[in-house]
Predict the structure.
Amino acid sequence: MAEVKRMGYCIDGEWKQSTSDKYISITDSSTGEVIAEVPSCTVEECEAAIASAQKAFESWSQLSMAKRVQYMFRWRDVLYAHKEELAVLCAKELGKTLNEARGDVQKAIEPTEEACAAPLLIQGDGAMQVTTGYDTTSYRFPLGVVTGVVPMNFPAMIPWGWMVPLAIVCGNTVVLKASSQTPLTSMRMLELFYEEAGFPKGVVNIVTTSRKEAEIFLTDPRVKAVTFVGTTGVGKHIYSTAAAHGKRVQAQCEAKNHALLLADANLEASTNAIINSTYGCAGMRCMALPVVCVEESIADAFVALLKKKAEALTIGCAYKEETQLGPVVNAGHKQKVSDWIQKGVDEGATLVLDGRGTKVAGYENGFFVGPTILDHVKPGMTVGDQEIFGPVTCIKRVKNYEEGIRIMNANPFANGSCIFTSSGYYARKFVMDTDGGMVGVNVGIPVPSAYYPFSGNKDSFFGDLHVLGRDGVLFFTRAKTVTSHWFDEEAGKRVVGTWEGSTEQ
């Protein structure tokens, strides 16, 4: 058995060993083998990370936009050069297939490319002669120290795509609270960030710690904003606590995305899209498609086709090229998903395909859950309403479009929603009717490119400004509006009014 590497935490661009006596095991999801340990950093170590970011902010924020953008161009090239290495590491610690893991890294690269356009994105607005003799211009300035609280399911994309690029190119510095389940990819990226991209020390810092110690990020006055991805319960706590301490917050939370499959849809193509969305990343993503509302007239045919295609998926080691469905992240999560499947059965759903007990030859200790289908899921069944975060499809049979949209919108989550149809009328109507923040028309994963905001609604998001796109730039900056007036020779003789320069009287 290979030696288990004990990881540290990184402040001021230097890796340090924690004084904590509590370490968390990181496993290879395909083999079950422990491959590393990470510390549950102390409060003092978290405070040191904040201090490092605060110190770095003084110089980094004063660097010209042109120089910060040059760093981002260099960082983009480093990520491309190490894309395969990072993908393999991501696949090992999380269980994503290689193609999915490559996509995870690519989704960190794309926002980095967006950040290279910061001189355009961060531009303010201005006008001369707004009132007689007065000019007004608005500028965007960095906030200061930003904390990113990272989930386990996208070790590259979320910290290094959603959180870091726009934050730092706008002049902020960052403390990442990496996931204690899947921190290795993010840690390796931080090594590359300093060693090959050459960023100034302290611009980005990483700790791993428990919720108790992480509370400091929500209350410390040096932290100006918190960006979070995770469960709704934790998201609500972070939003309320951090906002109460004067911080900006964006909290991306749970999802239970629904699709509406109408009878006029291309059944084969729609099922392919649903397979990809439902079982991709072993269902461990907030843009999975775990519920399909299908019109009764085609329900039997759809369920049969879905089962056939799900059974044909190649289940195996995450970092084998041929694998189409990898394991879930760890033993605890495997048990959680299995418990949800049993709960669905207990609630009265029909178990069409059972992924529990899935074994892969040569990887018998891996955390595998095969594709699972629960049919006849009725309103009120928790399995159809709550996030499972595994490769489980719930089928809700509906009479028509009206019943389908009503059931979809009754769910408290509204990250994304999809419709599969050949009808332009119903597609257009769905876009207007759905509560989903990201909408797919014959698209199973309606995630927009990095140039648009990731726009969840209802209990899937708490905050005002979403991640990425123009929203991301606005979130990581504050406005400063400047009104200017230049005195002429007669200025001293004029009476200055109460609303000086802001209105014509």
